Amino acid sequence: MANIDDFLKKTYKLEESVNFDNYMKSLGVGLVTRKIANAVSPVLDLSKEGDEYIITQKSTFKNMIIRFKPGVEFVQDTPDGRSVNSVITIEGNKLHEVQKDEGGKNTVIDRVFTDTEVKMTMNHGEVSATRIYKLQE
Prior knowledge:
The chain contains 2 helices and 10 strands. With 137 residues, the chain is mostly beta strands. Helix 1 runs antiparallel to helix 2 (31-39).
């Protein structure tokens, strides 16, 4: 099985997005922000400093940096402006993230890294979305 460290310093660009608008609606994201978020194709990469991992997502709309130590809870500001308590664990080539917001609804995000893509699956309540990022050469 692949190890998450095998995918450090690689760059992936969003190629496909399924049900992302409904997912953002379920989070309470407003119409204007949803339209902008649906129009951009962010670039994603994973790096590591010491025992801390860094997920960077860049787009013309907003840049996001998530710094985490596996299994350690941290406060994260989401791209839509919410503050959540998150824990990210590593399972082979997968980053498994659980976000808890003040409303008590958990968001679960899985990022599965392969040699050609990152498949990001997001679940909030009954709503699920998938985003596929392709490896950039």
